[in-house]
Design goal:
By secondary structure, the chain is mainly alpha-helical. The protein contains 23 helices and four strands. Helix content is 69%, strand content 2%.
């Protein structure tokens, strides 16, 4: 059976499973559409949260980002994991105790203000749309390669699949679909990683293989990789980057994670507050399975790419383009891998043509610039082909990449549609809408959001993980501070919260768009190549914590010079945080 048919069978089977689950778990009420009727088991919810959380950026882009730059981009790994811990400890249980369906609903009630709620809806839509562009882009990349179609065609196919199960099932359908998607994506990620780790180091556990000896050269794997990439004029794989931006970017991802609406709403689906804590713990275990493997996948992919293109060593660079490996031919059709013969010698020259010390050597060899452009987003998907693994593994990776992109896209689209139908239409524009009408509004909003996300995905700002990084910066600056103050401070009032959100959101947007040109220079990395005219040298992707700081400061100052919240709101805050019965005498 040829590879194309195998891919179709494996991907088709996984889609049939998702659509079947959506039809079985069809939402019949708004409680089912928004919160799966609060009946989800904590272990199942943990698995669904992990799938919701591990997006195309985690599955497709993260290992690619680490592979492209090395240690400097481990910030993605640290920030996303740390943020999840913050969310589990500081926000999830309290928000579940509050017992609402959506994040803007919590903000509106806690700050006793429709304006605050409206601003939260705007923030949520901007964050979720930015984030969902990354997912749709990732799905488009996966479809285009494995169904051998244009990236734009792949995007429309992805949109159609999400439409079927998200619009039908709502949160109930999405939850059970995400459990299936988690199983698909973790199997798809782990099997190739185990094969490749065995090939390169003889160790079946990738996270141990990363620190093992490279079988062929008898050198430690990372040392071998450092040697190979520095030979090509690239920065050493294990070299540290700009520490200020690494710290700020990690912090931005952490607090951005804790403010992501589509992850927070997952905790509204469990029966009890204790279950919210348990599902957060389970999700962390399920996430760790992929996150421990990603750095190994990135490093091994980078080594494999260079070894397969230049079998006799990177210095030789005498490989004829016509004799290039098969995996290059298949990826060239997607446009995500490009070769341009700049000196007309018919050979592939791949090196860092911006490295100052390397220019002389290149000129002596008659090279006129780097001729190979490899998009970071293809590394994980191309990994099995590069390592010449069996065809079914390649099909599995296709299904896994699509599962990752579609599971997160569905969660985000649900956050957008519930904000529009529940927070905007039901509570603001048309309070007397019937339940049936609200459910219809939610489905229409979902369909509209899918269309907008697809159109933006056709021309995305940056590749999947970079677009996602922007969403985190916006969540860090707008939603996270207001949730923290809403839970842990009785003194912050509605004026303070509204002003804080607006200042956080606007300052971050202004900074991002002022410096966006440098942020998306193709082939450069978010944490390097920072031009001197950035404010204090802070990269746009690292601005989230500064926006959050401005949000906190504004909310505090405005609240201090205006009236304290009403007593019933202060009592409400107290009751969210303190367990019922705490401090009172117990009688048996």
């Amino acid at each position: 059976m040829d590879q194309y048919t195998l891919n179709l069978l494996i991907v088709g089977a996984s889609f049939a499973l998702y659509v079947g689950i959506a039809i079985w778990a069809r939402a019949g009420s708004t409680a089912e559409f928004y919160a799966a009727n609060r009946g989800v088991n904590p272990v199942m919810n943990g698995m669904a949260t992990a799938a919701d959380w591990m997006s195309a950026a985690s599955f497709i882009s993260m290992a690619g980002l680490i592979a492209g730059v090395g240690y400097g981009n481990s910030t993605y790994l640290m920030g996303w994991t740390g943020g999840y811990v913050l969310l589990a400890l500081l926000l999830a249980p309290y928000l579940r105790k509050f017992g609402k369906y959506t994040v803007p609903q919590f903000i509106g009630d806690r700050f006793y203000s429709q304006t605050a709620r409206l601003v939260a809806v705007v923030c949520l839509i901007i964050i979720s749309v930015t984030y969902v562009i990354g997912q749709m882009t990732g799905a488009g990349v996966a479809f285009s390669r494995f169904l051998e179609v244009e990236v734009s065609t792949g995007l429309w196919i992805a949109a159609a699949v999400v439409f079927v199960y998200a619009v039908l099932g709502g949160m109930k359908g999405i939850t059970y679909t995400q459990v299936a998607q988690y199983l698909v994506l973790i199997i798809a990620y782990s099997i190739p990683a185990i094969f490749i780790s065995l090939n390169l180091t003889g160790n079946p556990l990738p996270w141990l293989g990363l620190f093992s000896t490279h079988t062929e050269s008898s050198m430690p794997l990372l040392q071998k990789l450092d040697q190979v990439v520095t030979d090509l004029g690239f920065t050493a794989y294990t070299a540290q980057g700009d520490m200020l931006n690494m710290f700020l970017f990690t912090l931005s991802l952490m607090i951005g994670t804790a403010g992501l609406p589509h992850v927070i709403i997952r905790f509204f689906t469990v029966p009890k507050v204790a279950d919210a804590r348990w599902s957060a713990g389970w999700a962390l275990i399920f996430i760790a399975l992929l996150y421990l493997t990603a750095p190994a996948v990135g490093a091994m992919a980078r080594l494999n790419i260079i070894d397969t293109i230049f079998p006799s060593g990177p210095q030789e660079q005498a490989v004829l383009y016509d004799e290039r490996p098969d995996w290059m031919r298949t990826w060239e059709t997607t446009g995500l891998l490009k070769f341009e013969d700049k000196n007309g010698d018919g050979r592939i020259q791949y090196y860092n043509d911006k490295a100052a010390g390397f220019a002389e050597t290149a000129a002596q060899r008659g090279w006129q610039g780097n001729e190979l452009d490899i998009n970071n987003d293809i590394l994980v998907l191309a990994n099995p082909e590069i390592a010449q693994l069996p065809g079914w593994v390649i099909g599995l990776i296709a299904a896994g990449g699509l599962a990752a992109a579609l599971s997160t896209a569905a969660g985000l689209l649900l956050a957008i549609s519930s904000a529009i139908s529940h927070d905007l239409i039901k509570d603001y524009l048309k309070p007397d809408i019937s339940e049936k009408g609200e459910l219809m509004a939610a489905r229409i909003a979902m369909a509209g959001a899918i269309l907008v996300a697809t159109l933006l995905g056709l021309n995305p700002p940056g590749f999947a993980a970079q677009t996602v990084a922007l969403a985190f910066g916006l969540a860090a600056a707008s939603i996270f501070p207001v949730l923290m103050m809403g839970i842990f401070s009785k003194r912050i009032n509605s004026l303070g919260a509204t002003a804080g959100m607006l200042v956080g959101l606007i300052s971050t947007c202004v900074y991002l768009f002022t410096y966006l040109g440098w942020f998306f220079v193709p082939g450069t990395n978010t944490l390097e190549n920072i031009p001197a005219n950035h404010l204090f040298g802070i990269a746009p992707a690292s601005f989230g914590p500064i926006g959050a700081l401005l949000n906190f400061a504004t909310a505090y100052i405005v609240s201090m010079v205006t009236q304290a919240p009403p007593q019933h709101v202060q009592d409400l805050v107290e009751s969210i945080r303190v367990p019922r019965g705490a401090g009172s005498a117990t009688h048996h």
